[in-house]
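User: quick one, fold this
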Amino acid sequence: MTEKTPKLRAALDGVPTYKPGRPAAPGGPVAYKLSSNENPYPPLPGVLESALAAAASFNRYPDMACAGLMAELAERFDVPLSHLATGTGSVGVAQQLVQATAGPGDEVIYAWRSFEAYPIITQVAGATPVPVPLAEGDVHDLEAMLAAITDRTRLIFVCNPNNPTGTVVRRAELESFLDRVPADVLVVLDEAYLEFIRDENVPDGIDLYRTRPNVCVLRTFSKAYGLAGLRIGFAVAHEPVAAALRKTAVPFGVSQVAQDAAVASLRSEDALRERVDALVAERTRVVAALAGQGWTLPESQANFVWLPLGERSQDFAAVCERAGVVVRPFPEGVRVTIGEVEANDLFLRAAEEFRKEL
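Assistant:
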């Protein structure tokens, strides 16, 4: 007799499990984790103190409306409070967006490879993922994404800069794309790495959202601001979309510790700028060193670099691990976070060793 078990949604059968960057093993030879695009710096000035003060009251529920943070964001970006929504990191808000727009029979378009959560959150909602291969140079193929739109399309993700390749969509091509997307299809500009962009031709998504009701901008405090462990992000969108996001949010999902830390982080802009500039300078050094070793890689505007190694990706990751760093292999290539100088140097030595074997 077959034992009966609870019935689960069949839509979940093909859903892949999100794979986080593997941490360094305790007591092992690996000293540095360059697999999760984390900020190597400690919290910005004043942030830890704000977080600790908030932690003293975590026997109480947090402010579900995130009123203090929302007010800070509204002033910082000059947007109405009604155009803001928060969530557990930008990926949490992205999941809320899919829940608000798509269900069985609906389609969600995104570039591939891009952020690996997109197909997961799409399938969890019961919608159909429509991955569009990256064009030559590991960039978004916006023309192909336009061609993929059907009457079932509800949402399009544009990751800018793209994770994991670090490539960007520039203003002219993005504006042309947005002008041709049907007005009833939501375009989500996922700008988790915006602070690291130094290409002046890449637009700020918030400028684009202001005149386009079907554009939503995602931001996070996990990367440049260094609050990855607190899980807090936000969206800027016109009122109907932002209101839907607030409806689909997990009640009390964003802790008071995270809210207060985010406010303090926003008020440490000068220190943030210094740290981001230092990481961008380190990115430039790493890229130059790789070029000197003979590597060809796409230009990164994020806090990581991408080595399009294909089937050699796992081999390269193993070489890096023996050298003392954990990197993030994908079937198409390897993503390596820009971390501490010492970590980057270990990675560069591993890359040089691997290059000699090619």
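User: anything notable?
Assistant: The chain has a mean pLDDT of 95.
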